[in-house]
Design brief:
- Helix content is about 5%, strand content about 50%.
- It has 1 helix and 24 strands.
- The chain has one helix at about 70-80; strands at about 5, 15, 20-30, 35-40, 50-55, 60-65, 85-90, 95-110, 115-125, 130, 135-140, 140-145, 160-165, 165-170, 180-185, 190-195, 205, 210, 215-220, 225-230, 235, 255-265, 270-275, 280.
- The radius of gyration is 25 Å and the shape is globular.
């Protein structure tokens, strides 16, 4: 069993499964898309030399049967499926709960058939499916302070404390390497925050001094990359503060160990990684 739904640019959703109005006949394009392999031949040896590879756009083709009231249900589809416009597709099966974004290429209906069908062709510029749930990893541990027997004094007692943990393993459970959103929050003055990938020895350094309440947000997802600084409710682009040689981290499938530090006042800095797994197919 699976679940399929679509969403238009207004955020309005229409389920295509689990409804009497439509029956899904087929969905093409759920498998990993075709790759383009770039290679060059040489007169010096047999075969060719690999130069690189890439994935093109994903093509999704959904075929559905429109049930009575046929005209009413077909017209209802026009509200969600409009040629050239944005569309979001949700898909869920027994192992994966994902979505993908694209644009409607064609929407064709067999108007004069006794059992009317509609075929929707969607082109997805970013070919990977994304997990519905994000994985949030904070670089601290919760230490339990409550125990029996106990007595609550007038000043109160702590039930737990936060202990900074400067090393964390970020697990990418997807099929492919993907970017991540990183949030750095200051509870006091912090000078030049730094993040390191322990596995690759790559780094991301921001040459800035933070004060209590300031937040730096780093997004390393391809096609969405940015770094923003929020202070006093005002958000600004601080790409000019990124140290030369900094790496826009891509997390490989499996474990990725990171740590963070600062030139001064590391105890005033907290770090959070927010990851959305990506998949070649479902």
């Amino acid at each position: 069993m699976y679940f399929l739904a679509i969403e238009n640019k207004k955020g309005e959703q229409l389920p295509l499964t689990g409804t009497q109005n439509y029956d899904v006949i087929s969905i093409d394009g759920l498998n990993p898309p075709t790759a383009t392999i770039n290679a060059s031949e040489s007169a010096a040896f047999d075969g060719s030399l690999f130069n690189g590879s890439r994935l093109g756009v994903r093509s999704l083709v959904i075929t559905i049967r429109i049930n009575p009231d046929i005209e009413l249900n077909r017209i209802n589809l026009y509200r969600y499926i409009r040629s050239k416009e944005y569309i979001k597709v949700y898909y869920k099966n027994g192992t994966r709960d994902v979505f993908i974004e694209g644009y409607v290429e064609t929407f064709e209906c067999d108007l004069f058939s006794d059992k009317e069908q509609a075929q929707i062709s969607i082109l997805c510029p970013r070919p990977y499916f994304r997990a519905m749930q994000t994985v949030i990893t904070d670089f601290f541990n919760v230490i339990k302070m409550f125990h029996f027997p106990f007595a609550i004094e007038a000043a109160g007692i702590p039930f737990s404390e936060l202990e900074g943990n400067l090393f964390k393993s970020i697990v990418n459970e997807g099929d492919v390497a993907c970017g991540v959103r990183i949030e750095l929050r200051a509870t006091g003055e912090v000078v030049t925050p730094k993040i390191y990938n322990v596995d690759t020895r790559g780094y991301f350094i921001v040459n800035i001094t933070m004060k209590a309440g300031d937040v730096i947000t780093i997004n390393t997802v391809r096609g969405e990359k940015y770094i923003e600084f929020t202070a006093g409710g005002v958000t600004t682009n601080i790409i000019n503060k990124v140290q030369r040689g900094s790496e826009w981290f891509q997390l490989e499938p499996g474990d990725n160990v990171f740590t963070y530090e600062a030139e001064q006042y590391i105890n005033n800095l907290s770090c959070t990684f927010i990851l959305t797994d990506m998949y070649q197919g479902v």
